[in-house]
Design a protein that fits this description.
Shape: elongated
Number of strands: 0
Radius of gyration: 16 Å
Number of helices: 3
Largest sheet: none
Oligomer: single chain
Structural class: mainly alpha
Order of helices and strands: HHH
Length: 52
């Protein structure tokens, strides 16, 4: 990542954000696979706030 984005502050921030997005996706996929009730509650709360 450092080679592609550089080692400046903005490159480091972009790398941090990209890693966070990837790890969040992995967590959500594993939580869905394990059928965690907390994930269902989180999705239900998000849908309630979005009006869906």
């Amino acid at each position: 990542m450092t080679g592609a984005l550089g080692s400046s502050a903005s490159g480091s921030l972009a790398s941090l954000l990209a890693g966070g997005v990837v790890l969040t996706g992995v967590f959500l996929a594993i939580a869905h696979f394990m059928r965690l009730p907390e994930l269902s509650a989180l999705v239900g709360a998000a849908r309630g706030r979005l009006g869906r």
